[in-house]
Every structure is written in C-alpha cells, then in structure tokens.
Amino acid sequence: MKIVLYRPQIPQNTGNIVRTCKVTGSELILVRPLGFKTDDRSLKRAGLDYWEGVDVTEIDDLMIYLENLETLFYFFSSHAKKLYTDVTYDQDTILIFGSESAGLPQKYHERWPEKFVTLPMIDGSRCLNLATSVGIGVYEGLRQISTTRK
C-alpha cells in the first residue's frame, strides 16, 4: 500500500507515519510544500531509526499524480459520508490524507467525490490526529488483504 500526505505540517506526525510505513511495508509519498524540512530533527526523532528501508517520495502536484494512476485510491476526509470500511482495498491501494490544518482542497472532492471515505467520529468533534487516522486506514487495508489471501 501507499500513503500520501498532502502538505503535512507537523513533523512528529510524519515521523510517526514513517514508523507505520516501516512496520507495514507501505510506501510514503509527501506532497510539497511541506511544513518542515525532511532533515528536521523532530521528524527524524519521531521516526527514530525507522526511516531506513522506507520508500519516501516527494511530489509537487497530487492532481497530476492521480490523473495518471490505474490503481485504487481513496481520500480520507471528515467531510465524506462513506465509511472507510465500506470500500475494498488491495495491496496496491493508495490512501490519501490532507494536511493537519487545512485537509484536502475542494478540487479533489469535486473531481473524485466517490473516492472519499471517512472514519466514524462524533458530530461536532475535532478530527483524529493524522498519524492515528493513517494507522486506522492502513490496518483496515491490511485486514482486508489478509482475509482475501486465506
């Protein structure tokens, strides 16, 4: 699986997501601009020694990247109606998460409304931490993949 972080702002979140990528064999794609430098001590410290062996790529334009895909992908958003458990994941699925402060731009909602999923939360509550949301999405994908392999 691949994880895409759209313009992440908090280095500790990205560091924790690197850890999740390491232990699940997931790739990480960061969409620039980032709210930190990738050599940031906070980022490295949060990821500890997990950076080695994690495939991390930086891109400038998510729209162009997605337009050329032939792979399943889903956007995770608190504004979606469909639950993240109501879609099918495979080993090549790409999970896309917005920035901590701004989420995902409206143009993605308009272009791919059917590709948006959400995590259940109480109405009016703040969103989950980005690293927590990524973990939930990745492990649902892995659960589905392991179930279909048995």
Describe the structure.
GO terms for molecular function: RNA binding; tRNA (5-carboxymethylaminomethyluridine(34)-2'-O)-methyltransferase activity; tRNA (cytidine(34)-2'-O)-methyltransferase activity. With 150 residues, the protein is an alpha/beta fold. The chain has a single domain (2-145), classed as SPOUT methyltransferase, trefoil knot domain (Alpha/beta knot). It has five helices and six strands. The chain has a six-stranded parallel beta sheet with strand order 3-2-1-5-4-6. The two termini are 19 Å apart.
Characterize this entry briefly.
With about 150 residues, the protein is of the alpha/beta class.
Give the helices and strands, then pairings:
Blueprint: E1 2-6, H1 11-24, E2 27-31, H2 41-47, E3 56-59, H3 62-67, E4 73-76, E5 94-97, H4 106-111, E6 116-117, H5 130-149
Parallel strand pairs: 1-2, 1-5, 2-3, 4-5, 4-6
Helix pairs in contact: 1-2, 1-5
Subcellular location: Cytoplasm
Function: Could methylate the ribose at the nucleotide 34 wobble position in tRNA.
GO molecular function, one term: tRNA (5-carboxymethylaminomethyluridine(34)-2'-O)-methyltransferase activity
Overview features:
150 residues, alpha/beta, Alpha/beta knot, 6-stranded parallel beta sheet, 5 helices
List unreliable stretches of 5+ residues: none
In the CATH hierarchy, the architecture is 3-Layer(aba) Sandwich
What gap, in angstroms, lies between the N and C termini? 19 Å
Specify the structural class. Answer: alpha/beta
Binding site for S-adenosyl-L-methionine: 98, 119
Function: Could methylate the ribose at the nucleotide 34 wobble position in tRNA.
Pfam family, one: SpoU_methylase
InterPro entries: Alpha/beta_knot_MTases (IPR029028), SpoU_MeTrfase (IPR001537), TrmL (IPR016914), tRNA_m1G_MTases_N (IPR029026)
